[in-house]
Specification:
binds cytidine-5'-monophosphate; 2 domains; alpha+beta; Ribosomal Protein S5, domain 2; eight-stranded mixed sheet; 11 helices; four-stranded antiparallel sheet
């Protein structure tokens, strides 16, 4: 019985267009994902007795150490669901111990739980020797959650459907980001419910990826990308957490090229023109009451990979 280690990035949404709620309760999305240099690691150690367990830890990271109390270590954990789904699909009888080293914020709008599920698929596929192709893993990923297929893919990609269909986008350049993590997470489900409440008497149109954003990515133009960042969940997230508006304002005042919430929030993201510029923005945010932690990062990076 063998062991495999996988490194998996967080995601951000450069744009997040949200359409009217579907009959299944999900919302159609038109998004551009970018995988960023903030990684969780999942180690899978196969076991012969058929048990599947998960343990979550962080190393020397005070923010994450507090947050991991909110990560379930039972069957609600998405990494365990991923292992079970792969076992069902392949008929393997072995079990696995999953050890997750967390860095991606919990309930931060950066798909930390989905990232761990993507990593668990790749790690178990290796540790169990089940040999499923990347395409087969992507099919399983879509059943686990809307963001999971993109976290296998990585880079930049257009997301459609409820987020689970991933297609390539022409993009160049590497971008400097600053992430402001909040003291408390937000539930994705709650933010979408607030979106529905706020839009109950409005016409919500089918979402589209803005042309200006695609043009900025094609050109590798950070300034144009900053102007084109957008997120239809902003109003709903700010309705639940009004103080996030202050965080966004402080980053913009510090000269960020653009500022939006990451996915359903509450992590706020800021685009910088250079490493030095991102340091200035991070400094301005670090003394903000609403920020539990400020992190500089780069994107795009690759998706879940064996190390
Ligand atoms: O797909 P995932 O399980 O990550 O989604 C979490 C929750 O977010 C869903 O239960 C749903 O309430 C909401 N959601 C949505 N529309 C999407 C994606 C997620 O309403 N496209």
């Amino acid at each position: 019985m063998s062991q495999a280690n996988v490194r998996v990035p967080a995601k951000i949404n450069l744009c997040l267009g949200v359409g009217p709620v579907r009959d299944d309760g999900y919302h159609p999305l038109a998004t551009v994902y970018q995988a960023v240099d903030l990684h969780d690691e999942v180690r899978a150690t196969a076991r012969e007795d058929g048990e599947i367990t998960v343990a979550v830890h962080s190393e020397l990271d005070v923010r994450v150490a507090g947050e991991i109390a909110f990560v379930p270590e039972d069957d609600d954990n998405l990494a365990i669901k991923a292992a079970r789904l792969l076992r069902e699909r392949t008929g393997v009888t072995a079990g696995v111990d999953l050890a997750i080293r967390k860095v991606i914020p919990v309930a931060g709008g950066m798909a930390g739980g989905s990232a761990d599920a993507a990593a668990a698929l790749v790690a178990c596929n290796e540790a169990w020797g089940t040999g499923l192709s990347r395409a087969a893993l992507e099919t399983l990923a879509a059943r686990l959650g809307s963001d999971v297929p993109f976290l296998l893919h990585g880079g930049n990609a257009i997301g459609g459907g409820r987020g689970e269909t991933v297609s390539p986008v022409l993009a160049r350049g590497s971008y400097h980001w600053v992430f402001a993590m909040a003291h408390e997470g937000l539930s994705t489900k709650a933010v979408f419910a607030e979106f529905d409440r706020l839009n109950a008497h409005r016409t919500v149109r089918s979402p589209e990826v803005p042309d200006a954003l695609l043009a900025a990515l094609r050109a590798g133009d950070a300034e144009a990308l900053g102007d084109a960042l957008s997120n239809d969940l902003t109003e709903a997230a700010l309705s639940l957490r009004p103080e996030l508006g202050d965080t966004l304002g402080i980053g913009l005042q510090a000269g960020a090229l653009g500022a939006i919430l990451s996915g359903s929030g509450p992590t706020a993201l800021f685009l910088a023109a250079s490493e030095q510029h991102s340091l200035d923005i991070a400094f301005a945010l670090s003394s903000t009451a609403g920020c539990a932690d400020v992190v500089q990062s780069r994107g795009p990076v690759t998706g879940a990979r064996l190390t």
